[in-house]
Design a protein that fits this description.
heterodimer; A: about 550 residues; mainly alpha; Cytochrome C Oxidase, Chain A; two-stranded antiparallel sheet; 19 helices; 3 strands; globular; B: about 250 residues; alpha/beta; 6-stranded mixed beta sheet; 8 helices; 12 strands; elongated
């Protein structure tokens, strides 16, 4: 059948809603550039290629973490949460509760400026903002904490608007089926609301304390672990929902496994994400062995929904391609539209997710936490996820949606198609060198890891590669943003050129009969990589010239 | 998607690869990592054994971060200063070895270089050598018991005080193969007290005001970097000390 595509729906949004999404896009991309600037500065300072006082360096580090992780990722996510929600109307698309959405955006923007101001004016606290480190700078800390409160309030309002939109778009007839994307967006928004409450729960007491209205919060660190856990899995949930929607929109191939199956998979995020936060606390001395073991076990399940979505998308694509005549084990891959910038970026995002996932699953083993936690291994692997996977997916979504929302033709598609490969190369340098240094214990949050020559040589020997990787990442992402910005400011294009109607197929009998093993093979390779990385980590652990015994604390 | 229409397969039923059950099962692929953990002795073979065995640990730890077991930072500081002053050498270092220590070392029988195979796996929790954990992880427990029974050396106490932005002592002299009970506290903010050991490190977190005790034995003489791995302010990168193991 041929139906209106999501991108066509975005083009059909009322001008006021398109203005909202345009504003969101502008704010999101600007925040990415700001975060990249601070990230590059941090990388150059810590690798010795730029000089700065330690207070300045840690301010850069704080601003980088806060800006990229909490503002870029959430500005962009909320933009697509609202855009996908609005696209689910059978008839004319719209954003419900628009005043709440505008207020939410305003709150997030104010939060952004509060976070930046608090960082520049006071003690650099890094993004967890420990009250223990505030010292005399209470006012600036209060401003910094207020940023998180405003961010949380904004997220809550935007998620509420998204849910109101999907509910308004939901067919009301008994036999009507809620669209998979509408359902997934609602689940996504629900988790955003829960996470925003967790953020308020942590930072409202800290704000009240900083402004002299309450005592110092006793459990800031625990609250931080809980909110951070949710907030760092939400982008992954958003990522796979965007893959699902964008790939279907571009290729016309939907899931061959049925809507109910997809809905169950998306629901699994709500089941598995909240209870798996224990692994962040494996090094806390008062966490019992029982809870550490349980945390490791539960963490294994966090991969389930992400792998399931990957299997559904790729198997559906392969089965369709084979039904249309594609041959060879991997020959069907040639039938995908790799010259589409969004498809290219999502393809590389999958590669980076696999790389990041392999090493993330070393860290969830509680016995390995004393080897790797708090070392540079952590930022080295998570950049594969935050930048290589989530950011690349969000940029893919911008490349896909901006022509529709802005009514412009996408500029320089060949350049945009190539950039993700360059970015991945930079990531490999940064991440590979960073993991090597981290594996030998280089701490993650120091500006000068040389320790006056007392540190292992590898900590400083990796610096050129870490710096080179950071530069390549920053330049390639900046180039992507520049092209998107130029697209937004380009000449208007006719509707047929920017949002074609897509024939959609969700599978017929011939499709189901096709052998489609590529996705399963990829998962087998991924799991094999996890086994290998775990074995290597345990072998290093066992070779250490130290026998560690009873770990007790808080008594 | 594009592609030449060229005779799709028309024989048979749905492929296994396009069945929901297969996709659901394949999605659990990474969960199989638990089997490897169990094989390595890092998790109980039957994961349902996680429950129950360590309830006593849960109760012990219910005090959370705020609990100090009766030791305030000021009291710990006083104890650490007294201990370190007693063992301070002329070069300012603190030396804690059986010969100089004066601590009670019953049944002391200093081991010569033990066979590494008989040593517990680094980072294994010796507190799990009791009967509870023994049933869960026999491979780990056996090696731990071998080490603790063969050596018959009781741990000597070592005090490490962490504060912005230094450790006291800044130079610690220890003996190889001697078990030490490190008693550590971060007195002003959370810190790390991690030890760089050559190919990798042993990472330790110290929440503010909590007494953290850890039994450690160095199995190789050398100089080791003790450093903070929790961001603790602008001087974080200067917070380090040295451990010399003879």
């Amino acid at each position: 059948m041929t139906i209106q595509s999501i991108s066509r729906k975005l083009n059909d949004l009322p001008s006021s809603d398109r203005l909202f999404l345009k504003t969101f896009a502008g704010v999101a991309l600007a925040s990415l550039l700001v975060g990249l600037l601070f990230g590059l500065a941090t990388a150059l300072i810590r690798t010795g290629y730029a000089e700065a006082e330690s207070s300045t360096g840690y301010r850069m580090m704080t601003a980088h973490g806060v800006t990229v992780f909490f503002y870029w990722l959430y500005f962009a996510q909320m933009a697509f949460l609202l855009a996908l929600a609005a696209s689910q109307f059978e008839g004319k698309p719209r954003i419900a509760w628009a005043p709440a959405a505008w207020t939410g955006l305003l709150a997030m923007v104010l939060g952004f400026f509060a976070s930046q101001s608090g960082t520049y004016l006071g003690t650099p606290l890094l993004y967890d903002g420990s009250p223990e480190l505030v010292g005399e700078n209470m006012l600036s800390a209060g401003i910094f904490y207020s940023g998180y409160v405003l961010l949380a309030a904004g997220l809550f309002l935007l998620a509420a608007s998204a849910i109101a939109t999907t509910l308004a778009a939901k067919p009301s007839g008994v036999k009507d089926v809620w669209s998979t994307i509408g359902f997934a967006v609602t689940a996504w928004a629900g988790l955003v609301m829960v996470s925003s409450i967790a953020t308020l729960n942590t930072f409202l007491p800290a704000t009240a304390w900083a402004f002299g209205l309450a005592a110092m919060p006793a459990n800031h660190e625990t609250g931080w672990h809980l909110l951070f856990h949710n907030l760092h899995y939400l982008p992954l949930m958003g990522t796979v929902i965007i893959w699902y929607a964008v790939i279907q929109d571009i290729t016309g191939v939907g899931s061959i496994f049925g809507q109910r199956f997809s809905k169950i998979i998306f629901t699994l995020y709500l089941v598995f994400v909240p209870p798996t936060s224990l692994y962040h606390m494996f090094l806390e001395p008062d966490l019992s062995p029982f809870l550490r073991g349980l945390g490791s076990l539960l963490s294994l399940f966090i991969s389930v929904p992400t792998i399931a979505v990957f299997l559904v998308i790729v198997t559906s694509l392969e089965a369709h391609a084979r039904a249309r005549g594609a041959r060879g084990l991997f020959g069907w891959l040639r039938s995908l539209p790799w010259n589409n910038p969004a498809v290219s970026a999502i393809g590389w995002a999958v590669v980076n997710l696999a790389l990041g996932g392999i090493f993330a699953f070393v860290l969830i083993q509680e016995r390995l936490a004393p080897l790797l936690s708090d070392t540079f291994f952590v930022p080295a692997y998570f950049h594969f996820l935050t930048i290589g996977t989530v950011t690349l997916t969000l940029l893919a979504a911008f490349a896909w949606a901006m022509p529709s929302v802005f009514g412009r033709k996408l500029l320089a598609p060949r350049l945009l198609t190539a950039i993700p490969a360059v970015l991945t190369f930079g990531l490999a340098l940064f991440g590979g060198a960073g993991m090597a240094a981290g594996l030998s214990g280089m701490p993650r949050r120091v500006l000068d890891p040389a320790y006056d020559g007392a540190a292992p040589q590898v900590w400083t020997a990796m610096s050129p590669y870490i710096a080179a990787g950071a530069i390549i990442m920053a330049v390639s992402l900046t180039a992507y943003v520049v092209v998107l910005t130029a697209t937004a400011m380009g000449a208007p294009a006719p509707k047929s050129a920017i949002a074609p109607a897509t024939p959609r197929s969700e599978g017929d009998l011939m499709v189901f009969r096709q052998p489609a093993w590529t996705a399963s093979l990829a998962v087998a390779i991924l799991v094999g990589g996890m086994y290998a990385a775990t074995l290597v980590a345990f072998s290093i652990l066992r070779a250490l010239p130290l026998v560690a015994g009873a770990a007790t604390g808080a008594h | 998607m594009t592609g030449k229409p060229a005779g799709p397969r028309q024989d048979g039923r749905a492929s296994l690869s396009t069945r929901r059950g297969f996709i659901a099962a394949a999605s659990l692929g990474a969960v199989s990592l638990y089997g490897l953990w169990a094989g390595l002795g890092a998790a109980p073979l039957r994961f349902w054994d996680l429950g129950g065995a360590d309830m006593s640990d849960m109760e012990m730890s219910s005090g959370g971060h705020g609990s100090t077991g009766g030791l305030s930072p000021e009291e710990f500081r006083r104890m650490a200063e007294e201990f370190n002053d007693k063992h301070r050498q002329t070069d300012g270092s603190v030396s804690v070895t059986p010969a100089e220590n004066g601590q009670s070392v019953t049944g002391m029988e200093m081991p010569t270089e033990p066979d590494n195979a008989a040593l517990p796996m680094p980072d294994m929790d010796m507190s799990e050598t009791d009967g509870h954990a023994g049933h869960q992880m026999p491979s780990v427990t056996e090696t731990e018991q071998a080490a603790s029974h063969d050596s018959e050396v009781l741990p000597l106490e070592v005090y490490v005080l962490a504060q912005q932005w230094s450790f006291d002592p800044s130079l610690l002299r220890l003996k190889a193969y001697q078990p030490y009970r490190f008693r550590m506290m971060a007195v002003d903010a959370a810190h790390g007290a991690s030890i760089q050991l050559g190919s990798a490190s042993h990472i330790i977190r110290l929440p503010k005001g909590a007494l953290v005790e850890r039994e450690l034995s160095f199995t190789q003489p050398g100089e080791y970097l003790l450093y903070c791995t929790i961001y603790c302010g602008e001087g974080h990168q200067f917070m380090s000390a040295k451990i010399i193991v003879a």
